[in-house]
Write a structure and sequence with these properties.
With about 500 residues, the chain is mostly helical. The protein has 20 helices and 2 strands. Strands 1-2 form a two-stranded antiparallel sheet. α4 crosses α8.
Length: about 500
């Protein structure tokens, strides 16, 4: 009974904090019909590559201070110490980000030449806009981190809702009304996070002081240093495929790849929300005598949720994106050639989520060096498979490279975590879930391919298959759906 209450508590935390994450990260998914209608693949490809550069640069802009800030702020016992930490971190990153953005702005042309973008002047301009974005993106995060540290989930959600609304409205204004180019996406983000930053500053004013502590900054940098290297490897694993596609082909195929990758965003948002809640929740279980049983149960429910999402979105996505509503398809016809990668990407996101569950054990036992080693191995594997698979299989090869990478990392971290913190997972149930999912996924593919009917009929057939899948899961007592439905009750 206690185990079920823990699962429910973790689920509720994932939903509350996940709401903010989903709002922030779903903008590109929600606006995909507009992006793919107004911008050709090569423009979206250029945007994707430059956005990938921003994700990589973000690690250097924050110096790993985000992670160390959370730890030290939570550990601080009084408001004065918390104020020193918050104000010092904010001041330091504002100054350092200004310097980095200025250097980035002045060297935009050299960076554009380095990547050999198809339109040098446009890529230079986008990189200069990006330099401004990196500044505001870095500093706006810290008031939000403070809300998380204080477990102020409501304020966190409301502030993210504000960012989301402003971002959506600005995108519509710049793209549809003003008919601006792909830079509109960056403009909208800059405006939305700037508004959020000033609102959040007002809400956190009790921790703002005009004192800068060098000692506090040294502590933050020392603790956060190792997370920089882990972050670099993870970003390269997730983003290097775009640059390999650019190297072997062109920006147009990158744009098609990005648009279809966005279709799997639903899985990535849920995984991100879970990761957000899982690690601190794992730490808080340390004193619970039933902690291993609780973790095992959480893992089973996670696998069920992940495989269910994989099945549902894999079988429905292709038909749904082709339905025309108010003159728009969800994905413009120019991008349909990349739809085959969606199931692969969904599965890759799922494996990354499983990996995040297993890597909590090294954090718990203070073996974070092992995570760095495994991540470096993963990056090496990813580079090798990108070279091997992308030239012959193009976008499918890129997606498969990411999937294989996370699968290998998952196996390594599993055996290592079992060695240092053994947990008896419910592998019989998990194997049954995996087999059922595979049967229904392949069954849907062959049935649809054989009948070759219209989209609505295909949706009806897949809906029947999914309902039967749930029936079997419940009938075979792999997962009791009644207990799953109770998670949604208050």
């Amino acid at each position: 009974m206690e185990t079920k209450s823990h699962v429910k508590k973790l689920f509720s935390q994932t939903v509350i904090y996940g709401f903010g994450i989903i709002l922030n990260k779903s903008v590109n998914f929600i606006l995909l019909p507009i992006y793919t209608r107004y911008f050709p693949p090569e423009e979206i490809g250029l945007f994707t590559l430059i956005q990938s550069i921003s994700l990589f640069l973000g690690i250097f802009y924050t110096f790993g201070v985000e992670t160390s800030f959370m730890k030290f702020f939570i550990d601080a016992k009084d408001v004065k110490t918390k104020s020193y930490i918050y104000s010092s971190a904010l001041s330091f990153l504002t100054v350092s980000s200004l310097i980095l953005s200025l250097l980035f702005f002045l060297n935009a042309e050299n960076i554009a030449s380095l990547f050999n973008f198809y339109d040098l002047s446009k890529s230079k301009f986008l990189l200069q806009v990006l330099s401004v974005l990196m500044l505001v993106d870095t500093i706006y995060r810290f008031p939000l981190l403070l809300f998380r540290a204080e477990l102020d989930s409501k304020t966190y959600a409301y502030v993210n809702l504000l960012t989301f609304v402003v971002n959506i409205l600005c995108n519509i204004f710049f793209i549809i009304i003003l008919e601006k180019g792909i830079e509109s996406i960056f403009y909208s983000y800059i405006i939305s996070v700037t508004v959020t930053f000033f609102v959040a500053l007002i809400l956190t004013k009790k921790y703002l002081i005009l004192i800068f502590s060098i000692d506090k900054i040294k502590e933050l940098l020392k603790y956060g240093n190792k997370f920089v290297y882990i972050g670099i490897c993870i970003i390269l694993i997730d983003m290097s495929d775009r640059f390999f596609l650019k190297y072997f082909f062109n920006e147009s195929i990158v744009g098609i790849y990005w648009a279809n990758y966005r279709l799997a965003t639903v899985m990535s948002l849920v995984i991100a929300a879970f990761k957000f809640s899982w690690t601190p929740y794992f730490f808080n279980l340390s004193s619970n005598p039933d902690n291993k049983k609780i973790i095992s149960t959480v893992f089973t429910y996670f696998v069920f949720a992940g495989l269910t999402m994989f099945l549902v979105f894999s079988v429905f996505m292709e038909q749904l994106v082709k339905i025309r509503i108010f003159g728009y398809e969800f994905l413009n016809v120019d991008y349909w050639q990349g739809l085959s990668i969606v199931p692969v990407v969904l599965l890759a996101y799922f494996f990354s989520g499983v990996y995040s569950i297993f890597n909590a054990a090294p954090f718990f036992t203070n073996n974070t060096r092992s995570i760095l080693i495994i991540t470096v191995i993963g990056l090496s594997v990813n580079i090798i498979f990108n070279f091997l698979l992308i030239p012959p299989f193009k976008m499918t090869g890129a997606a498969l490279s990411t999937l294989i990478t996370y699968l290998i990392m998952l196996f390594i971290i599993y055996f290592y975590s079992q060695k240092i913190y053994r947990i008896n997972y419910e592998w019989e149930k998990i194997l049954k879930l995996g087999v059922l999912t595979l049967i229904f996924f392949t069954g849907s593919y062959f049935i649809i391919k054989k009948i070759n009917t219209n989209s609505l009929s295909e949706i009806a057939i897949n809906l029947a298959l999914v309902v039967f899948y749930f029936f079997l899961v419940n009938f075979l007592k792999i997962i009791e759906l009644k207990r799953v439905s109770m998670l949604w009750k208050k």
